[in-house]
Amino acid sequence: MATxxxxxxxxxxxxxxxxxxxxxxxxxDHLKLYGTKYGCGIAQCGACTVHIDGTxxxxxxxxxxxxxxxxxxxxxxxxxxxxxxxxEAWKEIDVPQCGYCQTGQIMSAxxxxxxxxxxTDEEIHRAMKGNVCRCxxxxxxxxxxKSAAKTxxx
Length: 154
Description:
Blueprint: E1 2-8, E2 11-17, H1 23-30, E3 49-52, E4 55-58, E5 71-73, H2 75-78, H3 85-93, H4 102-115, H5 121-128, H6 138-153
């Protein structure tokens, strides 16, 4: 066990964990931030997506020892009151069915729009490709991303 100083959602936090503990479990078990979900555990589904230094990353495979001095944003840090343009578009389009994958979807979409404010359909498909939605809400996800891009444009 070691103590790690982390910057999560703009707050400096200290956690004790084994060096190889995945960031996902530190976020959920140590810090009690439950928005980031466990899906597959092998970085294939996207449910555990967080931003690390602005890049969407699968937190289930990132060891905590690699996180000091990194800026980590979870779904809770995207917006304190849930009014990020992507979150608003998700509500407007009524994207979720079961909702399990949606935090990872939202985090990937937000990172895309930070990088490319007005993405093409191909850029959206490429950015969202690794996020699995078992309910199949992909058309609504696409529409919500386009809606959020328009909102940011105004």
